[in-house]
Amino acid sequence: MNGKIVRLISNLYTVKCGENLYECRARGKFRNEKQSPLVGDDVLIDEKKHLILSIYPRKNELYRPLIANVDGCLIVTSVKKPSLDLHLLDKLLSLITFYAIEPVICFTKVDLLSLEEQELIADLKKYYERIGIRVLYNTEVTKIKEIIKNRIFVLAGQTGAGKSSLLNRLDSSLHLATDIISEALGRGKHTTRHVELFLIEEGFLADTPGFSALDLKDIDKFSLRDTFVEFEQYTCKYRDCIHFKETNCKVKEAVENKMILQSRYDHYVQFLKELEK
Ligand SMILES: Nc1nc2c(ncn2[C@@H]2O[C@H](COP(=O)(O)OP(=O)(O)O)[C@@H](O)[C@H]2O)c(=O)[nH]1
Ligand SMILES: [Mg+2]
Ligand SMILES: [Zn+2]
User: Fold this and answer.
1) Is it the case that residue 186 has pLDDT exceeding 80?
2) CA angle 161, 165, 171 (to 5 degrees)
3) 205/70 same-domain check
4) What is residue 217's predicted lDDT score, i.e. its pLDDT?
5) In whole angstroms, what is the distance from residue 203 CA to residue 226 CA?
6) What proportion of the chain, given as a percentage, has pLDDT over 70?
């Protein structure tokens, strides 16, 4: 029978075949082949012996969390408490774009802002949308569900940004613990390997926050440059212009003319310097 692995606790996999769930173990041969099934894998199982027999080819695999076939990442970004962190947002956008996964920005806690502050967030939303990134508010449950539909998404974002609350909003039967305190108390749970995909209507969302421990150091400077997708439309004097110390740089001109957001460019230069170190 064909199915998808939706949960792994210690060495026990839960495989979803249509509407049914099967608890399976991985066949011994995987260990010899130094391969192991991952959450997100499409697999062939022997449903009577409760064994995973083989893994279908993967589109990609993430290490944190360990999930295969990831289509997108919801970057849960709080605008207050914790305050808006555009440096982190741009870093996550670059990382996710580099891994060829679709980033989607999800702003939370806009209700804590004054109307004036809300305008600033709306402007920011427009900028990121203009460069081709989808941006939503956590209140837009229907739109978020549409994006996840038939795909696998992971969450990213700081502690307290509202990731668990978002999952609860998407599926009120989940009752996930929210708040920093309950999360801190739950730390012990992470000693066993536990990765789980929640079925949100017809899509999957991982409960484990991804990307937080990753950084950009494995990326070369040209790849970093290319993750800033809005730079691509400018043709500089030098074809391999890195838009930093070069003269006649159209990207730097665009920053001066406010066509490119100053914070985006500043973060780009900061990441570039981190790579050079
Ligand atoms: N006012 C407000 N509070 C929120 C919102 N989303 C989450 N919270 C609160 O922020 C705190 C942290 O949320 P949680 O979901 O645990 O964050 P996580 O660490 O990213 O999983 C909790 O007290 C939530 O009730 C929101 O949109 N507005
Ligand atoms: Mg949480
Ligand atoms: Zn340039």
Assistant:
1) no
2) 145
3) yes
4) 79
5) 29
6) 92
Ligand nearest to the CA of 167: 1
Q: What is the pTM of this model?
A: 0.93
**Domain end (from 160, 182, 209):** 209
Nearest ligand 1 atom to alpha carbon 178: 16
Judge if the beta carbon of residue 227 lies within 6 A of ligand 1: no
Whole-number Å distance, alpha carbon 267 to ligand 1 midpoint, is 26
Query: Contact 153/73 with Cβ under 8 angstroms?
Result: yes
Number of domains in the chain: 3
CA of 266 to the centre of ligand 3 (A): 14
Tokens of 178: 């929210």
Q: What is the mean pLDDT of residues 57-66?
A: 88
Which ligand 1 atom is the nearest neighbour of the CA of 108? Answer: 27
Average pLDDT estimate for 23-47? 93
CATH number at 185 reads 3.40.50.300
| Residue 88, domain extent | 62-209
Query: Do the beta carbons of residue 271 and residue 216 sit within 8 Å?
Result: yes
